[in-house]
Amino acid sequence: MLKKEEILRMIDALHREKGVEREILFVALEEALTMATQKKMDVEEGFNVHINRKTGAISLEAPDGEEVELPSAEALGRIAAQTTKQVFMQKIREAERDRVFGQYEEEVGTVVAAVVHKIEGPNILLMLNGQNEALLPRSERVHSERLHVGDRVRVLIKEVRKEGSRVVIIASRKDDNFVKKLFDVEIPEIQEGLLRVMRVARDPGYRCKVAVYSMDPRVDAIGACLGVRGTRIRNINDELGQEKIDIIGWSDSLEELVQNALKPAKEIELDHIFADEENMSVFVLVKEDQKPLAIGLGGRNVRLASKIVGWDIEIKTPAEYEAELMAEGLLEEDTEDRPEETTVEGQEA
Asked: Per the confidence metrics, is the pTM higher than 0.70?
């Protein structure tokens, strides 16, 4: 049996190494010794081991509450000693798991610093705080991003769950909320409650739109996010790499929000934005030279704008709209200003 001085040293060493509270370690050792003692004495309950927290002295309490002599290590036997060790280590692993789970469960939805520890196929293992491992799975990675062992990155803690004696921490760099939380960290006015990020729409690795709203009319929402000479948004850009960020003003007016969300397309008039509330769709007329900008490469700009607005958006030029109406017979061809056909004798004009 361990001497009381050895017990105190062991508890202290495990506390420093594992980060588990001393009281939890004492209770775990008591439970392990109790289980081994009851097994040796061939009883299921009633005899309980107690350890003095200050001196390390071990005592055995009988069912009637009286203190009895604790069997020696020789009396307990080799099998009982092994059982004590196995139970104690299992209790430590469970306590360590619960500590890590409790710590990171509180950080779900926050952005933390991490270091790329290992690359296993499409998945990446990260190290958090130099001691806890997190998984950045393929489904939460930006596919155009190339990470290497040793790279320092920031990630969103997306999920924490227990799996047996392990804690699985799922991280993300792809989630829309990752960008939102980066803004929360980098923009002081958001932390102070003067600005709010209303909605984020991403095509990870390529482009994202962030709709911001000022709670104080004296604060320019877009200007505050950009910072002097773009210093604030540059920190976010550095984290996102090549992903372009469009900061747009939020509006409670659907038409104004559509107008803002379709930027960089310009000169979209509010009375050229037609809402279909029943189908939650918006039809927008844009100038010929602005249509490519409104739609974007592969439809990316209008798709992200739709996510910001929450409605489907359809883009057409006036000429396309007129042609569509004529094809449906809803608009007659205008011939009023066309010259009449004339003929010269024996020849058509």
From this structure: yes
